[in-house]
From TrEMBL:
This is dUTPase. It holds the Pfam family dUTPase_2. It comes from the Bacteria. SUPFAM superfamilies: all-alpha NTP pyrophosphatases (SSF101386). Gene3D superfamilies: Type II deoxyuridine triphosphatase (1.10.4010.10). CDD domains: NTP-PPase_dUTPase (cd11527). Transmembrane segments: none annotated.
């Protein structure tokens, strides 16, 4: 089980640094974060190649896919901070839904949240995203470790004016 509060705290520190460094503390960044989440999900889908029926090339290495996956976690956490919603964490059920269908569901969940910014819609985004992670066979430990590593990279990037 993931320690969500630890991850929210780490994300809060990163977001605060970014917002202060870029004079964004008074701006509502929710729509930008929702678009960023959608773009990151697209990048993740691209690395899995799950929808590329026309290509014989396989997915990227697991480490690359995992790094793309935690980029989405960064934005899900950040959206929760922006809206004051928290995901407490429930492991999603294992299901036979295809990865392509899960990505389509996730895109719909982002759109639904953008229209109705409720905690239920926020939690639904998380549940679908975690189902993607389950489909990719990412354990909670894989995810936490990768999130922390990417968070360190993101902090360093910000310090070096990324």
């Amino acid at each position: 089980m993931l320690n969500w509060e630890e991850l929210y705290q780490m994300q809060h520190e990163l977001d605060s640094f970014i917002e202060e460094e870029n004079n964004l503390t008074e701006q509502n960044l929710l729509r930008d974060k929702l678009l960023a989440l959608s773009v990151e999900a697209g990048e993740l889908a691209n690395e899995t190649r799950c929808f590329k029926f026309w290509s014989r090339k396989g997915p990227s290495e697991k480490s690359i896919i995992l790094e793309e996956y935690v980029d989405g976690i960064h934005f899900l956490l950040s959206i929760g901070l922006e809206t004051n919603y928290r995901f407490a964490g429930v492991e999603p059920d294992q299901n036979d839904t295809s990865l392509t269908e899960l990505f389509l569901q996730f895109n719909r969940s982002i759109s639904e949240f953008e229209k109705v910014q409720s905690e239920d819609h926020y939690i639904h985004m998380w549940n679908v995203y975690l189902s993607i992670g389950n489909n990719l066979n990412f354990s909670a430990n894989d995810t936490i470790k990768a999130y922390k590593l990417k968070n360190e990279v993101n902090v360093e990037r910000q310090k070096n004016e990324y």
